[in-house]
Amino acid sequence: MRKYFLFILVAFTSCSEENSSSQTVQQNEANFTLSKNIERSVWNNIQVGETLKFDIKIKNFDSSNGTVYVLKPITADVTKHQQNKIDYNFMEEVKTLPESLKDSIITKVVRDSIILKNANSSFFVAILKPGNFVQQYELRKMKSNKYVAGSTQEMLFSAVKIDVYTRNIQTDNSTMFSSSKHSRFYEFTVDDGDQSNDTYLTNSESKQNSYIALYNYKNYNGNISIKEVLTFSEKVNTEKGAQVVPSWILSELKVTQKRNHEPDNIISYNNLNIKQK
Q: In this prediction, what percent of the chain has a pLDDT beyond 90?
């Protein structure tokens, strides 16, 4: 009987030690998953000036007193567009209550790091430059202001800068016998970044990029050439004055990437604002 009791005691002690060990491992973890927010359904057409939303889920979230989770971007590699406040703005949403308003408003604030108070949270990234982004984020678990554990996750995406504009040139002055003559041009430029690996819309031996521009219910075809002046609608010649711009919105710029031995990749940029140049 004594041997049987001793066996039960040893087994119980072993089980307690395993549970304690498991709890200790969990307490010393800071594992998380990073994902693109589902509110945006298409992620291959990101432009400079847009704000992206990402979701973070912390595994085995520790809500005990004195425990704090801190998320911060790793800003080490310039070539991967990892510079916060230069390539992008790392932001969180905060509620503020202005004195003139009864209800609080939500604003996005640029941060160096963010304290996460829940297992499921979100943060925002405002794109400042074009390029192929290889973002890395570190989650640190702190207890009583001391580092306990940490881990990193990576997020990849590409962004381009598209400038769309129209310009008018007076090609001939008016005379006693003729009116002045004008030509209006509809043009745009595409920039996919200045680093060596920024080749999202750059042509190569294995990839060719063409486009169809839909403007004022008409299509215009061409080939993408980075940082070169491209056309999205036919030139319009007029007399006596410049043509009145029929619309200040380029409805769609659809890029088709033809890649060796792969299906075509279609990238659509919609409702682009046209500037007067």
A: 80
Burial of 159 (0-12, 13-18, 19+ CB in 10 A): buried
pLDDT digits (tens, 9 = 90+) for 75-120: 999 999 999 999 999 999 998 877 666 677 899 999 999 999 999 9
Rounded Cα distance between 213 and 46, Å, is 17
Choose among 174, 184, 68, 194: nearest CA to 131.
194
Strands (E) in 144-206, as ranges, are 146-172, 181-191
The angle subtended at Cα 214 by Cα 212 and Cα 220, nearest 5°, is: 50
Question: What does residue 24 show for φ and ψ, rounded to 5 degrees?
Answer: -65, -40
DSSP 43-65: -S-EETT-EEEEEEEETT---ST
Residues comprising the chain, all counted:
277
**Could you give the CA distance from residue 241 to residue 263 in angstroms, rounded to a whole number?**
47
Strand-pair category, 46-47 with 146-172? parallel
Q: Is 235 helix (H, G, I), strand (E, B) or coil?
A: strand
272 Cβ contact partners less than 8 Å away, ≥ 6 residues apart? 162, 164, 188, 249, 250, 253
Task: Work out the widest C-alpha separation in the chain, in whole angstroms.
Answer: 125
Pairing of strands 181-191, 207-215: unpaired
Distance CA 83, CA 176 (A): 61
For 99-119, letters b (16+ CB in 10 Å) and e give eeeeeeeeeeeebeebebeee
